[in-house]
Amino acid sequence: xxxxxxxxxxxxxxxxxxxxxxxxxxxxxxxxxxxxxxxxxxxxxxxxxxxxxxxxxxxxxxxxxxxxxxxxxxxxxxxxxxxxxxxxxxxxxxxxxxxxxxxxxxxxxxxxxxxxxxxxxxxxxxxxxxxxxxxxxxxxxxxxxxxxxxxxxxxxxxxxxxxxxxxxxxxxxxxxxxxxxxxxxxxxxxxxxxxxxxxxxxxxxxxxxxxxxxxxxxxxxxxxxxxxxxxxxxxxxxxxxxxxxxxxxxxxxxxxxxxxxxxxxxxxxxxxxxxxxxxxxxxxxxxxxxxxxxxxxxxxxxxxxxxxxxxxxxxxxxxxxxxxxxxxxxxxxxxxxxxxxxxxxxxxxxxxxxxxxxxxxxxxxxxxxxxxxxxxxxxxxxxxxxxxxxxxxxxxxxxxxxxxxxxxxxxxxxxxxxxxxxxxxxxxxxxxxxxxxxxxxxxxxxxxxxx
Amino acid sequence: xxxxxxxxxxxxxxxxxxxxxxxxxxxxxxxxxxxxxxxxxxxxxxxxxxxxxxxxxxxxxxxxxxxxxxxxxxxxxxxxxxxxxxxxxxxxxxxxxxxxxxxxxxxxxxxxxxxxxxxxxxxxxxxxxxxxxxxxxxxxxxxxxxxxxxxxxxxxxxxxxxxxxxxxxxxxxxxxxxxxxxxxxxxxxxxxxxxxxxxxxxxxxxxxxxxxxxxxxxxxxxxxxxxxxxxxxxxxxxxxxxxxxxxxxxxxxxxxxxxxxxxxx
Lengths: 451, 265
Description:
The complex is a heterodimer.
Chain A: H1 15-19, E1 26-30, E2 40-47, E3 50-58, H2 65-68, H3 77-80, H4 89-103, H5 110-141, H6 146-152, H7 154-175, E4 184-185, E5 188-189, H8 195-199, H9 202-220, E6 234-237, E7 248-251, E8 256-257, H10 262-265, E9 266-270, E10 278-281, H11 291-298, H12 304-312, H13 325-345, E11 362-370, E12 373-381, E13 387-393, H14 395-413, H15 419-431, H16 437-440, E14 448-449
Parallel strand pairs in A: 9-14
Antiparallel strand pairs in A: 1-2, 2-3, 4-5, 6-7, 7-8, 9-10, 11-12, 12-13
Helix pairs in contact in A: 4-5, 5-6, 5-7, 5-13, 6-7, 7-9, 9-13, 14-15
Chain B: H1 4-7, E1 13-18, H2 24-30, H3 36-42, E2 44-47, E3 60-66, H4 72-84, E4 85-91, H5 93-97, H6 109-116, E5 140-142, H7 149-161, H8 172-179, H9 184-188, H10 204-207, H11 224-233, H12 238-245, H13 253-264
Parallel strand pairs in B: 1-2, 1-3, 3-4, 4-5
Helix pairs in contact in B: 12-13
């Protein structure tokens, strides 16, 4: 994989285009945001050099999952909530399974727990690589799409597709299909794979490892706009592993809570321009979830090889420029590949593919790490297993105020840019978060109203 | 924007549209890793915002439509898309039968909005989630939650070749037998919607020791009543039978009727 230099369309403003830059009044409106999952728009208004309005508008139609989950059986959210998001269904399956198992007093361990981590590895690989190669890299290289990159650089795009396929192959083998896997259930899986079946993944994963290292070096050579903010990074933290399914919810600024305390610490606002709800932390304000947050809170738990690669490409243990999230996604992909190889290497099939999870009345909570950040679920069920209430907080709802804060800062610092360039960079800064708008729409019961 | 037909360079133009959905069906196109670049070489991808910021004006030779109609605005938008499309193909359970969000149908929508949103006045939604074919003429419906990506490639390739696509409308049972799965209902007493559900998934759930949950929707002329009686023999309660039929394709007429029958009993 060779390195591509960014072409002229994404170069920083020069004295030539300062001429046509926009003095003190700017209005940017992008009615259909491209290369994001779901439907959103962006609106930015600057009057007399002051940003007066910044909106990441979300007009994805509401789907009301939390409402129609009521009355369904406690075994069903694993399949139903997967339908919230076609790109991270495993995250929904894992958060719902863990929340309901906790409610029922069941903890899954051993090989089943390992298989769940393996499934998550597959989702991280396919989701991260899709974002790196097809949604984000085109911004840095001045193309409309990954497919357009392929016209000039077919080998690079083919290798990215092969890498993405390796992730999908894991989800497909373990889950039955890459989107909305059918093999996940409360307590584990309907069927566990044999050692031989998992063994077929080793060759492709070894090849993926090499491709991924090149991908990290390639993206690290991109030209990154200046933007650093003092983020509160929120993610899971587990004492021994880079987090997928388990751990406490922590931040780099002292937050350290159990999933059961999450709603006490978070507030959701319903604003007019969004069918997604905005999340903030009580007394702490907006915060940042996703790869940069996991990385900042868990750098020590990456393998020494990955830490070394991070240093080699110029990243410290905390990365505060969101444009560089593309490199951190690559490092996390590499972690998922290594972790998948470790799990497959030491795998012994469980005696039974699942443990029984009998219903009991109560409330259960869980947060797991979707590719784009913390995904919280809460369920309340009765003694028959009927769902009474459900709450879901997806990562993009949590990042939405942060995305708007980045936009505000970026526009304020870059008013000298040509308007087309400014607009492109604003769109790119939204894509830094790999926002999943399908996920973020239509969730929470609100506790604070926006006037 | 430039017009898709101007830029088409003789290649047929493709547009991909989203309504209320999870994105999974259009993502299936990007999940065709080995075929994607070949398909992209045969088509002008004129409008596919999830994958490209290059967006060309219509008309379009082929439109793929994902998602169901749930807002007043989308009701108008689909008519406009129909007018701009040569062939309109709906992809997935939301577009072909209203999807999982059709569980709202028949419920109190004002209450639903109140459960999720603090300021109902900001929310514009219809009381129902309905398939695209309720509103405009659809040329082909591809089933599944999500669709099977090989079926998607088949439909696109068949269209490019000017031949009918080979998409079976028989039940999951047919594929189960062809695959050599033991019958989960006969062998394990597991309730399975396979006998009344259209195949296309290659009998995925039974291959993983689980009963089919009907995500490809009803096959042609399904005998849902006989299957529901079988579920009674397997020990399912009435409400569980109703829930089985009322899920990913629960608004499709045969499944809806069967679910209603067990709700009422």
